[in-house]
């Protein structure tokens, strides 16, 4: 993570930006491809570092993958068994490696998964995933940093999630897609990425209903076939560029988005005084005359996304008054605060609540990305700041944003990667 981004602030951003495929849908769908017999071809997979890690894990367990000249990704699981164990060295690099548990259990009733790593945003346990698997008949043991999972006779079951966890919903869906009987997930996550995963699995022949609501029903089928599928656009990348327009005092047309996925973000941006206009394939955002303070509470979808919390905090740091941000999804997700303070922001954190007192100016300085979205927030602050900002640990940002330096440069930002 030694990369740096150097940004000279003060240029309003103008123009159009093309949004890439959704990281969080792409990662899980790549993993889910191992449930199929035959080749799966995926369009709109972003070229980001997290995708490369999933590719390495796929290759390591025996799956062939290749990029086509048209940018599509082919995933070709062999007809026999895959290696059931994910390597610590690879799995520690990202949290989404835990999704191999559901996919391997669905495929071959057995998995040994290194406890995952990922962004440092709280303890992120896996108890909900594990309870779900146990309900489906999986025996689980956790030893020396590995989860050993085996299902002698898996059968569908009714699973109530205490919290609508995205990863637990996805993991259970993947296993249940090939588990005999009916599985019902209650209090399931409703994120668009869950719907995308279900659409993908259904294209392979799965029988999944109800995604996008609290109750998902999955009738297990004996086999799934490879398919050709295109990933939805990344709503968080889109939201980040929307804030870039607002914070830099510019106007950006954010192309290749599904506007309904952006409604929670659009609503809050409008409250800050930005002008937002929806079109069929895009959203136009123009900075308002001033940035008004707003209160934000992060919640599972369709609530305001935790993955946009830090970026909004950057914007509200320049608001005319005080804003209150409550983080309800993750503990320990205010790490960007200390870095924003180095740039002149006035923010106080008390438990899960941050009070942001808007300031007139942020100043460029040396800061460090502590996680992916914190990194994005620092870029946004740097765009509006006076002088030069050097963002260390920018590798975090490249985990989730495709060509972010190029995209920002085309919009008129003064960005250098080194
Ligand atoms: C996914 C996204 C991440 C996003 C998050 C919430 C991917 C690869 N990552 O992460 O970008 O910020 O959804 O929208 O898709 N929890 C438990 N026990 C569990 C599982 C989760 O307590 O077994 C807790 C977590 O610690 C966290 C909360 O539930 O506090 C939400 O986690 P979850 O929805 O599972 O997020 P991820 O799937 O890890």
Question: How are the elements arranged and paired?
Answer:
Blueprint (H helix, E strand, L loop, with lengths): L4 E4 L5 E5 L4 H10 L3 E2 L2 E4 L5 H12 L3 E4 L5 E4 L11 H4 L8 H9 L1 E5 L12 H9 L2 E6 L2 E6 L6 E3 L5 H12 L4 E5 L5 H12 L3 E3 L6 E4 L4 E2 L2 E3 L4 H14 L2 E5 L7 H9 L3 E4 L3 E5 L9 E2 L11 H8 L5 E5 L9 H7 L3 E5 L2 E5 L8 E3 L3 H13 L3 E5 L2 H4 L5 H7 L3 E4 L1
Parallel strand pairs: 2-16, 3-14, 4-15, 10-11, 19-20, 23-24
Antiparallel strand pairs: 1-24, 1-25, 4-6, 5-6, 7-9, 8-9, 11-13, 12-13, 16-18, 17-18, 20-22, 21-22
Helix pairs in contact: 1-2, 1-7, 4-6, 5-6, 6-7, 8-10, 8-12, 10-12
Tell me what the structure shows.
With 418 residues, the chain is an alpha/beta fold. It has two domains: 5-20 and 233-417, Alpha-beta prism (UDP-n-acetylglucosamine1-carboxyvinyl-transferase, Chain); 23-220, Alpha-beta prism (UDP-n-acetylglucosamine1-carboxyvinyl-transferase, Chain). It is built from 14 helices and 25 strands. It has helices spanning 23-32, 49-60, 88-91, 100-108, 127-135, 166-177, 192-203, 235-248, 263-271, 309-316, 336-342, 372-384, 395-398, 404-410; strands spanning 5-8, 14-18, 36-37, 40-43, 64-67, 73-76, 110-114, 138-143, 146-151, 158-160, 182-186, 207-209, 216-219, 224-225, 228-230, 251-255, 275-278, 282-286, 296-297, 322-326, 346-350, 353-357, 366-368, 388-392, 414-417. The chain has a four-stranded mixed β-sheet with strand order 23-24-1-25. It has a four-stranded mixed β-sheet with strand order 2-16-18-17. A four-stranded mixed β-sheet has the order 5-6-4-15, covered by helices on one side. The model has no long low-confidence stretch (mean pLDDT 95). The site of uridine-diphosphate-N-acetylglucosamine has 20 residues, from helix 1, helix 5 and helix 6.
